[in-house]
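Researcher: Hi, I'm a grad student and pretty new to this. My advisor asked me to get structures for two proteins we've been looking at. I'm not sure of the right format, so I'll just paste the first sequence and hope you can take it from there.
Model: That works fine. Here's the first sequence with its structure tokens right after it:
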Amino acid sequence: MPWKLKYKFYFEQHPAIKEAYICKYKDDLIGKVSIITAPPNLGIHGWILPGEEVTYEVWFPNTPEPINHLTLPEIEGIIKYLRTLKDTESESES
């Protein structure tokens, strides 16, 4: 199944951490993905640093811990991979 996203994540200010930003991405196949970034030293393991590529702390469905310091292309790649796994799972159950 072809699928394309190309970084269409929409961020808003985190409700509990003033300097942080969060995206609650809902995928129709894999579920909710939470993507968070903030300046260093706020307890978030995805950072906004001047002159550096922004990285993100990401909670994927059914994971006990977040994955830290991912870039947007890496996040999108993982989402595509998880979709492929779910799609394959669905086909084998049919």
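Researcher: Oh nice, that was easy. Here's the second one.
Model: And its structure:
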Amino acid sequence: MKANPTPRNNRTKLPHEVFALCEEAKSVKERVSILKEESTFGIRTLLQANYLKDLEFDLPEGDPPYRVNEAVPGNQSRHFEKVVRDLKHLVKQSPLSKLAKESKYIRLLESVSAEDAKIVIAVKDKKLKSLYKSLTESTVRKAFPNILPPTEPKK
């Protein structure tokens, strides 16, 4: 029987594990509950970066040339939490050169699991919903009301 990551074994779930649980959930209420229970800085950062309209990454669209990390996803959660902080250096407002940003981005992708690298690429392109249809902006707002600015009322 496959071991399920739980608080008992002290392993924080990786983003692809949390997002997969959201896909399996039957209701928005259940998805919101999963996101809140499994909330980490990395999860919130990915969701915020995907849905913040003013945040633009200074990177080419699509998949860059990188070596996929073939390691079996294991206890990489601490590592992911550390490397996700590099996303702040990859935005247009960052003073780094374009070459430095692209190099840092490729190193980030090569250091995380293949599944989480796909998520980072999708977030960079603002296309997380193409991988996880249940992770709508509305669901994210319900789970984390303070990570996105208020929506403007429709006229």
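Researcher: Is there anything I should tell my advisor about the second?
Model: You could mention this: Confidence is low (pLDDT under 50) at residues 1-8.
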